[in-house]
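Is 5-O-phosphono-beta-D-ribofuranosylamine placement plausible here? Inputs below.
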Amino acid sequence: KRVAILISGGGSNMLALLDSMVGDHPARPCLVLSNDPAAGGLAKAAARGVPVAAVDHRPFKGDRAAFEAELLKPLEEAQPDIVCLAGFMRVLTGEFVSRFQGRMLNIHPSLLPKYPGLHTHSRALAAGDAEHGCTVHEVTAVLDDGPILGQARVPVKAGDTPEALAARVLEQEHHLYPAVLRRFAEGRRDPVHLG
Ligand code: GRF
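Reply from A.M.:
I modeled the complex. Tokens:
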């Protein structure tokens, strides 16, 4: 299976996925693609011999369709079987998503359906939640929705700042996403539960 990974920044989840696709793993990375040419993850992927590309979203301003038309070019050229959004911070239209329906995954830093959208850690703290975590789900036209493929839970600790909680969740993301991707690439859809 060929896996394309979309990033917007440092790409720590992308790195965890790259490092997992070795040996008898049924998938291999075919592209790392970013909406930011300066994304730190691009150099890390290139250093590992993975093809990289970037389409800067800023020249397209609000013209989401035009940006996505450009983004599709390197993505379709790479002919991925699976597309993983990993710290990708642009909202994709239903039209774009429909091209990869059933084979596009995303990782979100909350226990969906709680806290779709941004600032999930401060929202969990504000709510006084005893636990928090991350979710890998199939991407559909509705943001941070779609069938859940895995979740990892972490305790919220007294005195937690959003940054401390985010770091605890991120560490689990790096275990959850590779576990879900391997299972997904093997054709399994039974959910992964960690922590
Ligand atoms: C992090 O907030 C993570 O929780 C979310 O995307 C952000 C950046 O992740 N999935 P990464 O380090 O670029 O993978």
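Short version: Helices lie at 12-20, 40-47, 64-77, 94-98, 120-126, 162-185.
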